[in-house]
Design goal:
The complex is a heterodimer of chains A (86) and B (271).
Chain A (H helix, E strand, L loop, with lengths): L2 H25 L1 E11 L2 E8 H8 L4 E4 L2 E4 L15
Chain B lengths: L10 H12 L7 E5 L13 E2 L1 H11 L4 H14 L2 H5 L2 H10 L15 H17 L12 H14 L7 H19 L3 H5 L2 H6 L22 H5 L7 H7 L14 H5 L13
Parallel strand pairs in B: 1-2
Helix pairs in contact in B: 2-6, 5-8, 7-8
The chains are: A alpha+beta (86), B mainly alpha (271).
C-alpha cells in the first residue's frame, strides 16, 4: 500500500473519530449541583451541556467535590464575563 | 506559475490580523469553542477557549472533554500545525523577537520531546491527580497567560496581588522570551503543549506543502528559511514527501516560498 493511501486512510479514520467526539459532545449533559440551595436535605442540580461545561471550564465555573460537580456561581443570574482564577 | 503564488509572503500579515481578530471581543464570547493556539481565554478580549485551559479543568473534573478533543482533532487532521505558523499570537511574538540582533543558536534535537512530557504531566496527569487548582498545571506557568492576564491584572491592581507564584510565572515568561531571541521558536519546539497535541497529526493532515521535489538541487535555502530548525524540510523534499510531514513543522510555507524551483536539469549534465 502506498504511503499516501495509508495517510488518507488514517486521516479518514481520525476525522470519523473527531466527528464522533463532536457528536457525543453535542449530546452529552452533566449534572451540576448548587450547594447554596439545599432544600429539605435534597440537593438541587442543573443539567448543562458539554459546550456549557467548556465555557464553565474557562473561568472555573464548576468544581469537583467527591463524585459531583458543584457550581461556583448562581446560574439563575446573568453570568457576564469572568476570568479564570487559576 | 506557482512561484508567483507565494502564500508565505502574506504570513506576517495573517499573523497580525489573527492577533487582533482573536483578541477583539467587546463583550460577546464563543468560549464553547476551543481554538488550538496559545491564547489565554481569561484575557478580557478573548473570543475563544484555550484547549489547554479546558483540558486542565476537565482533567480536574475527571471528565473526558468530548467537544474540546473533537475540535482539536478535527482541525489537526485538516490542517496539522498550520495554526501554529499562521495564527498563534505567541508564535508571532517569538518570530518578532528572533529578529532582534544577538547570538543565535540551535537547540539540541532531544529538546523537542520535552513538550510531550509537559502535555502529559502538566495538562492531564497532575490536574487529574491534584485537581485543576494545582500549582503544577500548565496554566500556572503559561507565558501567554502571563502576558494577557497576569501582567494586566498586576498593573491594574497596582501590584497588590504580587506573590511567589506570580514571580515564578513572570520569571518563566522572561526566560521564554529571552530564549526566543536566541533560538527561533524555542518555546514552540520545547514546551508548547498545543504543538505537542497537533504535531503527530502533521503526518496525516490533509494540508500539504507542495514543493516540486523533482527539481530539488539541494541548495539548502529551505533549511535556512525554516523557523523550526529541526523540521529539516530538505530531507523531506529529497525523499519526495511533503515538508510538513514532520513533528516540528509549523506549516509556515517558508520552504515553499524560498525554493528557487529551478527547471529540471538536462539529461546527462554534471550536477
Amino acid at each position: 500500500m502506498r504511503r499516501v493511501t495509508k495517510e488518507r486512510i488514517a486521516a479518514a479514520f481520525l476525522l470519523s473519530v473527531a466527528a464522533l467526539l463532536l457528536a457525543v459532545g453535542a449530546l452529552r449533559t452533566y449534572k451540576v449541583y448548587d450547594d447554596s440551595t439545599e432544600e429539605f436535605g435534597l440537593l438541587s442540580f442543573t443539567r448543562i451541556s458539554d459546550a456549557e461545561l467548556v465555557v464553565d471550564a474557562t473561568f472555573s465555573g464548576v468544581e469537583q467535590r467527591g463524585e459531583r460537580l458543584y457550581s461556583t456561581y448562581d446560574r439563575s443570574e446573568p453570568r457576564g464575563r469572568r476570568a479564570c482564577p487559576t | 506559475m506557482l512561484k508567483d503564488f507565494s502564500i508565505a509572503a502574506h504570513r506576517r500579515a495573517v499573523q497580525f490580523f489573527s492577533l487582533f481578530a482573536l483578541h477583539s471581543s467587546w463583550g460577546p464570547e464563543i468560549k464553547w469553542l476551543c481554538n488550538p493556539v496559545l491564547s489565554c481565554h481569561s484575557c478580557a478580549l478573548a473570543w475563544f477557549a484555550c484547549p489547554i485551559g479546558v483540558f486542565v479543568h476537565y482533567s480536574g473534573y475527571h471528565i473526558f472533554p468530548f467537544l474540546a478533543v473533537g475540535t482539536v482533532l478535527l482541525l489537526g487532521v485538516l490542517i496539522g500545525r498550520l495554526l501554529c505558523g499562521w495564527v498563534c499570537p505567541f508564535g508571532l511574538l517569538q518570530d518578532l523577537l528572533h529578529k532582534l540582533p544577538g547570538p543565535k543558536l540551535k537547540l539540541p534535537s532531544w529538546t523537542g520531546y520535552i513538550k510531550y512530557v509537559v502535555l502529559v504531566m502538566m495538562v492531564f496527569l497532575l490536574p487529574f491527580l491534584f485537581t485543576e487548582r494545582t500549582a503544577y498545571s500548565f496554566c500556572r506557568i503559561c507565558p501567554a497567560s502571563a502576558i494577557q492576564v497576569t501582567l494586566p491584572n498586576l498593573f491594574s491592581a497596582g501590584f497588590a496581588g504580587f506573590n511567589t507564584a506570580t514571580a515564578i510565572k513572570l520569571a518563566i515568561l522572561a526566560l521564554i522570551l529571552a530564549a526566543a531571541v536566541v533560538s527561533s521558536r524555542s518555546f514552540c519546539k520545547t514546551l508548547c503543549p498545543i504543538g505537542a497535541m497537533l504535531a503527530p497529526l502533521n503526518f496525516i493532515s490533509l494540508w500539504k506543502i507542495r514543493v516540486p521535489t523533482e527539481n530539488c538541487v539541494s541548495c539548502g535555502k529551505c533549511e535556512t528559511a525554516c523557523p523550526q530548525q529541526d523540521a529539516a524540510p530538505a530531507a523531506h523534499i529529497i525523499q519526495g514527501t511533503p515538508p510538513n510531514r514532520d513533528l516540528e513543522c509549523i506549516v509556515c510555507h517558508e520552504c515553499q516560498t524560498t525554493c528557487p524551483r529551478p527547471k529540471p536539469r538536462p539529461q546527462g549534465s554534471a550536477n
